[in-house]
Amino acid sequence: MSTTRHVPQGADGVRTDGPVVDEAPPPAYSPDQASRDAKFPGVLGPVDERTGLVKAMRFGLGKVFPDHWSFLLGEIAMYSMVICLITGTFLTFWFVPSMGHITYDGSYVPLKGVGMSEAYASTLDISFEVKGGLLMRQLHHWAALFFIVGLALHAARVFFTGAFRKPRELNWVIGVVLALLAIIEGFAGYSLPDDLLSGTGIRAMNGFMMSAPVIGTWMTFFIFGGEFPGEAIIPRLFIAHVLLLPAILVGLFVAHISLVVIHKHTQFPGPGRTDGNVVGFPVMPVYAAKAGGFFFVVFGVTALVSALVQINPVWVFGPYDPSQVTAGSQPDFYMWFSDGALRLLPGFLEFTLFDTVWSMNIFLGSLLLLPLVFIIMGVYPFIEAWVTGDRREHHLLQRPRNAPVRTAIGLAAISMYLVLSLATINDILAIKLQLSINDITIILRTAFFVLPVIVFFVVKRLCLSLQRHDREKVLHGRETGRIVRTPEGRFFEVHEPLDEYERWHLVNHETPTPLALTDGAERDVHGVRRPAALAGGLRRSLSNFFYKDSIPAVTPAELAAAHHHGEHEALDTPGAAAAIGQHGEAVSDIPGAPVSGHVEDENVGAVRDS
Amino acid sequence: MSTHDNTPAVVDQTTHDRFPNPGMPPHRPRRADVDERASRRAALQVVIFFTLSALGSIAFLVAYYVIDPELKGTIIGIGEINLFHAALGVTMAMSLLGIGLGAVHWAKTLMPDEEVAEDRHPPAASDEDKAAVAQQLSHGWRSSQLNRRTAILGSAGGALGLFALPLIVPVAAGLGPRPRGELYRTHWQDGLRLMIDPSGAPIRAADVTQGSVFHVMPEGWVGHQAFEEHGAEEAMISKSKDQVILVRLDPSIIKSQKQRDWGVDGIVAYSKVCTHVGCPVALYEQNTHHLLCPCHQSTFDMTDDCKVIFGPAKRPLPQLPITVDDEGYLVAADDFREPVGPSFFERERPGLLMGDDA
């Protein structure tokens, strides 16, 4: 097997058995690296003497960023935020954040003569009178949705690959705060047009705030400037939406990116990649072109979607009227989980204590749930580090299968989130599926508790199976689908061994053990329990929960042993296979039939898989 | 970094025997690296992308000035659409995607694709730096005499702790009036006629047939008139809490004596504001006499004093006591006898908000 058989990603077109390049002839055409380097541009001199710009350029231009498709998710969020800032500025030139009552006299005929707030009327004007205004509104709304989708997927990528581990815990916390603020920013934004749908959202928000124990009524009156609806909430949401929250978002975003620069980006493990380096492309020119180009791709796709797919047609809903509501009122998708929780929480959770009212049926699903979800996310890295006792720096990511319990916890949490989100459309599900809304609600109430348990076990088992599959692949090579028949009439499938680069992807990860196996004794030499034993006991059992089932990576010795059994030589030379076949060993074409290597493999897995 | 930080608390002790990292794999040239024609083709593709972008930008401007903003048309798969809007969006997308795809294609086909490695350095400072910072801090602490002058420390701490209050308190306190009795009252009162919203017609008890449903507001608070007489703010507050749903039921199916007593021959009036988070309880199912809130699906049974039979609300909808005036029109006999709308902390103890007025 020649070493050139391995091909780096992206070169698949050149791979295969074609008449190509294995010999790597001197390139017929090479990028023009032979010409002399340019001199330091003199124009920069005076600037540099006053700003020290050149040092920063040297640092920035040579910076290396690793390549992986999943790293683009955060970029989608970042660019969508920029698009929101650009289009949002455009909208502020025409939007009037006022609840003052006027009679509409614009070009949208169905609403002519209807009384409405100036906020709603100016939103109609942006949609119908300002040329290109509708496109800007659509861009703004779609970009906001892409922002939050990108952010959520980015967070999932960071979580499932363990990128939040030391030294990035703080950046994870910043990201979590960004996610919460992005949701609030989105809610504030879609509440501004003061149409019937968004007004209903504000009405619900008013109800949430009222449910806060002790301070709820006061808080609501202060935020709304009196009784609902008042005339203060839209101007206040406006200034929060265009100034306060964006300022905090951009500030935290800068901190987020600065920490990425300080830490250097994480990378997936691979040949040549270690915890001590970062392998990828320098900013100048490759990364600048790719990342800069990707901004335009994201913007372009957003523009295309905004051109062709209608979102939030406020003129259809009509102006807000507190005595009206439309069936099928749903918030934007990122508020679904909270609205869904409100639909699932049963009314009996409201109780009266000393004649004071505690509306847990509302409070739990709104004012408590929203921060709670993000607090749990924020503290997760610290909990995991404590449970696993891992205080090392990590710059190499983990494949999700190599952290089965974390992956299972994450997906179990996502399943709870999805149940809540689904509950938001329980009325639409009931209509579309011709089911009773009561049944759907009861099923979802049950699923909220049952589904995560099922998902946890299924996902954990899947991860372990995938790890076993990796072992299998390292030990016995890749299935080629080529069936060979020996002169004796036996059949077997040729397995192709992995080369060292491919193998490295499957064997580089560590196999941690529970703390109990490495920690000190629970009692000291005199048999007295150590003071920290209680916390230690909890920690050990959690650590056991986290690490007890694991499939260790293949070691060179195991691989040598597998080879020793002779299967692989057999594959290369059918004659040898026949010989082994005569020894009654190692070769089997019957599915499920034991082959010595396989048997051993199962045992290795079973040792730790209790 | 000290070795302690680097010591894994959990490593697999059994596998010191591990594969070595094979190092960076040999570079494989792309087609454009070895084939002059392929590289020229790639360059041409990049140029085409950038050119399309420029054309898109120009087309946007043309569309902006040439197309009638009212122009409508049908696009297959989408339906009727404003063509001006669609043209602006599509040309803008072309302008942006041309640049984006061109740059990415350029980077992937022609720019170097050999990965390079850069070393990482732990963010933590060296021991020397740490010692220097410790020295700076303690020196600063001592040279500013903070270690001896506790009075300065205490007074400075107090000053810094308080200076923000003059800034924060007026803002916070000025945000809104504190809640008083508003939540316990609506505009309903004894003798006010029930008016159909939005027509503003009074309702004669005899005209309410069995099974009919009316959306009702108090006399003087209906439609434009309310906005003109009371101002928009008060009119909107009225809409949000005075709204009532009026239904005539067969008196024999009404399960509650109080419900019958507060109505007129089976005509009953209930607050339409959901006791969950305040949406209008807008869906009335005539067969089952259930009221459903479209926001979170709280379901109220009209035959049983609007008690909650499903969903997240806890309390029944408050009933408005009604009677008939001399001319046979339905009028309120009183305000609601409990607060309407969502629950709030002081709901059962008005004294907490209203003091002695309660």
TrEMBL record, chain A:
<keyword id="KW-0472">Membrane</keyword>
<feature type="transmembrane region" description="Helical">
    <location>
        <begin position="440"/>
        <end position="459"/>
    </location>
</feature>
<feature type="transmembrane region" description="Helical">
    <location>
        <begin position="139"/>
        <end position="160"/>
    </location>
</feature>
<feature type="transmembrane region" description="Helical">
    <location>
        <begin position="172"/>
        <end position="192"/>
    </location>
</feature>
<dbReference type="Pfam" id="PF13631">
    <property type="entry name" value="Cytochrom_B_N_2"/>
</dbReference>
<dbReference type="InterPro" id="IPR027387">
    <property type="entry name" value="Cytb/b6-like_sf"/>
</dbReference>
<feature type="transmembrane region" description="Helical">
    <location>
        <begin position="237"/>
        <end position="262"/>
    </location>
</feature>
<feature type="transmembrane region" description="Helical">
    <location>
        <begin position="403"/>
        <end position="420"/>
    </location>
</feature>
<dbReference type="InterPro" id="IPR016174">
    <property type="entry name" value="Di-haem_cyt_TM"/>
</dbReference>
<keyword id="KW-0812">Transmembrane</keyword>
<feature type="transmembrane region" description="Helical">
    <location>
        <begin position="360"/>
        <end position="383"/>
    </location>
</feature>
<dbReference type="InterPro" id="IPR005797">
    <property type="entry name" value="Cyt_b/b6_N"/>
</dbReference>
<protein>
    <recommendedName>
        <fullName>Cytochrome bc1 complex cytochrome b subunit</fullName>
        <ecNumber>7.1.1.8</ecNumber>
    </recommendedName>
</protein>
<feature type="transmembrane region" description="Helical">
    <location>
        <begin position="76"/>
        <end position="96"/>
    </location>
</feature>
<keyword id="KW-1133">Transmembrane helix</keyword>
<feature type="transmembrane region" description="Helical">
    <location>
        <begin position="291"/>
        <end position="312"/>
    </location>
</feature>
<feature type="region of interest" description="Disordered">
    <location>
        <begin position="590"/>
        <end position="610"/>
    </location>
</feature>
<feature type="region of interest" description="Disordered">
    <location>
        <begin position="1"/>
        <end position="35"/>
    </location>
</feature>
<feature type="transmembrane region" description="Helical">
    <location>
        <begin position="204"/>
        <end position="225"/>
    </location>
</feature>
<feature type="domain" description="Cytochrome b/b6 N-terminal region profile">
    <location>
        <begin position="43"/>
        <end position="269"/>
    </location>
</feature>
TrEMBL record, chain B:
<comment type="similarity">
    <text>Belongs to the Rieske iron-sulfur protein family.</text>
</comment>
<dbReference type="InterPro" id="IPR045603">
    <property type="entry name" value="QcrA_N"/>
</dbReference>
<keyword id="KW-1003">Cell membrane</keyword>
<keyword id="KW-1133">Transmembrane helix</keyword>
<keyword id="KW-0560">Oxidoreductase</keyword>
<keyword id="KW-0813">Transport</keyword>
<keyword id="KW-0411">Iron-sulfur</keyword>
<dbReference type="InterPro" id="IPR014349">
    <property type="entry name" value="Rieske_Fe-S_prot"/>
</dbReference>
<dbReference type="InterPro" id="IPR036922">
    <property type="entry name" value="Rieske_2Fe-2S_sf"/>
</dbReference>
<keyword id="KW-0001">2Fe-2S</keyword>
<dbReference type="Pfam" id="PF00355">
    <property type="entry name" value="Rieske"/>
</dbReference>
<feature type="transmembrane region" description="Helical">
    <location>
        <begin position="46"/>
        <end position="67"/>
    </location>
</feature>
<keyword id="KW-0472">Membrane</keyword>
<feature type="domain" description="Rieske">
    <location>
        <begin position="262"/>
        <end position="331"/>
    </location>
</feature>
<dbReference type="InterPro" id="IPR017941">
    <property type="entry name" value="Rieske_2Fe-2S"/>
</dbReference>
<dbReference type="Pfam" id="PF19297">
    <property type="entry name" value="QcrA_N"/>
</dbReference>
<keyword id="KW-0812">Transmembrane</keyword>
<keyword id="KW-0479">Metal-binding</keyword>
<keyword id="KW-0408">Iron</keyword>
<feature type="region of interest" description="Disordered">
    <location>
        <begin position="1"/>
        <end position="36"/>
    </location>
</feature>
<keyword id="KW-1015">Disulfide bond</keyword>
<keyword id="KW-0679">Respiratory chain</keyword>
